[in-house]
């Protein structure tokens, strides 16, 4: 994936714009994060030793939200919140290639590098999502079967990005749900389930609005580990590492 050359101003603008879109679409998601972020920042306000920052219970509350809050954390990396933002980001980012823990870089350089890498990744995710939507639009003219939408190259290209697609997919999933002119069912829950649990739902008959409501409820109000979880319909190995049984039982 080419990283390209983009100005810091452009990248920062996109980071904050995306966070605002999420906050507008999912206000409870934003409010829950802000409450837990403020509680953590207050708890560590008297300590400049970052090695102690993860030891307070307020930090665990943020960790439980998992990678779905990465866009909001990226937007927090400004001013006096920058160091705390980088610290939290490196704990919830699941892809090691996107973590930045470089003692030889000052905090501004770390923020710039993290945001730039995420900007590039999210542009690629956006393009993959648009390609899958085009496929769904065409496939929906001929079939309403789940497999017509998930057993295709465009779907595989999207879900290979892993859990980083969750915020963008939730935005698009919610928007398409209210599209009165859509010509096909919305199968965003299949991709969400696959990147989180390691396999798609593969329901042949589903209640679209019920599925969407479940995912929105999770995204806005629940911990990452509480994502909707359905039994596998087909016996095939997962394409992604699923959440462990131990995590699932928590």
TrEMBL record:
Ranges where the record places region Disordered: 230-250
Superkingdom of source: Eukaryota
Protein name in the entry: Uncharacterized protein
Native organism: Podospora australis
């Amino acid at each position: 994936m080419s990283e390209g050359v983009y100005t810091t101003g452009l990248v920062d603008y996109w980071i904050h714009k995306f966070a605002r879109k999420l906050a507008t679409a999912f206000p409870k998601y934003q409010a829950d994060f802000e409450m837990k972020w403020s509680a953590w920042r207050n708890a560590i306000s008297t300590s400049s030793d970052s090695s102690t920052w993860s030891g307070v219970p307020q930090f665990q509350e943020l960790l439980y939200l998992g990678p779905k809050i990465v866009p909001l954390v990226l937007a927090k990396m400004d001013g006096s919140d920058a160091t705390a933002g980088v610290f939290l980001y490196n704990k919830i980012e699941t892809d090691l290639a996107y973590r930045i823990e470089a003692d030889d870089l000052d905090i501004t350089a770390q923020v710039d590098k993290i945001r730039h890498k995420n900007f590039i990744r999210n542009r690629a995710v956006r393009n993959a999502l648009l390609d899958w939507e085009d496929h769904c639009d065409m496939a929906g003219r001929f079939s309403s079967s789940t497999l017509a939408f998930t057993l295709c190259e465009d779907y595989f290209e999207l879900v290979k990005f892993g859990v980083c697609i969750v915020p963008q997919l939730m935005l698009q999933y919610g928007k398409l749900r209210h599209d009165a002119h859509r010509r096909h069912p919305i199968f965003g829950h299949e991709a969400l389930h696959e990147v989180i649990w390691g396999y798609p739902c593969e329901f042949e008959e589903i209640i679209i609005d019920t599925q969407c409501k479940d995912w929105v409820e999770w995204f806005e109000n629940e911990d990452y580990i509480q994502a909707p979880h359905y039994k596998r319909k087909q016996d095939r190995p997962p394409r992604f590492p699923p959440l462990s049984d131990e995590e699932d039982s928590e």
